[in-house]
Automatic annotation (TrEMBL):
Highest taxon listed in the record's lineage: Bacteria
Designated name of the protein: Triosephosphate isomerase
Presence of the UniProt keyword RNA-binding in the record: no
InterPro entries: Aldolase_TIM (IPR013785), TIM_sf (IPR035990), TrioseP_Isoase_bac/euk (IPR022896), Triosephosphate_isomerase (IPR000652), Triosephosphate_isomerase_AS (IPR020861)
Subcellular location: Cytoplasm
Native organism: Photobacterium kishitanii
Active-site residues, record numbering mapped to chain: H97 (electrophile), E169 (proton acceptor)
Assigned EC number: 5.3.1.1
Amino acid sequence: MRHPVVMGNWKLNGSKEMVSGLIKGLDAALNGVEGVDVAIAPPVMFLDLAQQLLSKADSKIILGAQNVDLHNSGAFTGDISPEMLKEFGASHIIIGHSERREYHHESDAFVAEKFAFLKENGLTPVLCIGESEAQNEAGETVAVCARQLDAVINTQGVEALNGAIIAYEPIWAIGTGKAATADDAQRIHAAIRAHIAAKSEDVAKNVVIQYGGSVKPENAAAYFAQPDIDGALVGGAALDAESFAAIAKAAAEAKK
Ligand code: PGA
């Protein structure tokens, strides 16, 4: 049985005050909620504060981060290593987000290297994949997702996906309010799972595939009602404790 995972990607948002308020509000709102793993990825600058607050509250919220680099130490100005993320309690690390692929020109191969390095360091990769609007309109969605996944599968073997999380995020749905319909998302999730199943049915059956792109409390339940949607990667709505908790609760309820 796959366990649902709802993760908040805070992107470049936050201040000490905001992080404190959001974590406290979220922890309170999630009190008693079982059956879903809830993770947050604040900007790395706030991991220390987040870790302290979570541990003080004895919170079950999992700490994550939005990026990682390819070395654990050395002359790599500006980089953040897996060891550093681990030291601050971050376990679930987003890689391959479309914003990094676009603004930082991260290639499939580079993202796959990050995937391998996270695994090597005992961290959980949250691998984002997804198509642009033009690719969607050209009917290339499944092919694009397969190509992005194959960068990992062909270099590390399909078993590398064991314990990792895949986040299917159609780029045109991110931050636009133009979410994919639950039926369309399910169709793509099933195709992604089938692509993995062609290599290993066991890995396909167990890997968590989140949907991401304008997930809100209002549409979350419809996604989670789909058999191949195992949670969500949430941007905008994760910045509000009540909204994010409502999405997590919808996942817990749907996947009981
Ligand atoms: P959004 O972002 O929920 O604001 O669309 C999702 C994401 O980029 O992970």
